[in-house]
């Protein structure tokens, strides 16, 4: 649907459910998210269907803060860190990673709502109970298919983050696990970084 069509869709049907919740026969498109009325914050598009995000627990918020601030300490000048910004992977895929690292010139102004996959160097997902299947299986598959070179998955282990670091294998177009980090995340790609994971206790 075009932006004009979305603006004409009645806000709810007779049961009080917004009509835009129901996908058209061909599924939603990535660009639709910018034009749908009253779309909840942080809505994702996975396989042409809308995915609504549950309220996040304290661990999730603090883990995102920890990784975001940690990455910014080591970020090369040509890159930028963004949190909770959607990434357009293809026509019907627009997930919203918790953190992503983008090329600096991909930031085109304050009204920008998404980045293209080709501008993204790293995506980070913090796993929540409701997002386990997506964060562990489907979203990494989609990120890899879109050619994003680096993917990190963060799990809650007794209140402390465990970071699973993956790198795209060009021979298989799939992610390969390159390390699991419990106390300190020290990596050399996509750039040198050394993040004390125990700092989450101070946030």
What does this structure look like?
There is one protein chain. It contains three helices and twelve strands. The radius of gyration is 18 Å and the shape is globular. Strand 9 and strand 10 form a beta hairpin. The chain is an alpha+beta fold.
Tell me briefly what this model is.
With 203 residues, the chain is an alpha+beta fold. It has helices spanning 3-8, 58-74, 132-145; strands at 44-46, 49-51, 79-83, 86-88, 99-103, 114-116, 120-126, 150-157, 160-169, 174-181, 184-187, 193-196.
Feature tags:
203 residues; alpha+beta; two-stranded antiparallel sheet; 12 strands
List the helices and strands and how they pair.
Blueprint: H1 3-8, E1 44-46, E2 49-51, H2 58-74, E3 79-83, E4 86-88, E5 99-103, E6 114-116, E7 120-126, H3 132-145, E8 150-157, E9 160-169, E10 174-181, E11 184-187, E12 193-196
Parallel strand pairs: 4-6, 7-8
Antiparallel strand pairs: 1-2, 3-5, 5-7, 8-9, 9-10, 11-12
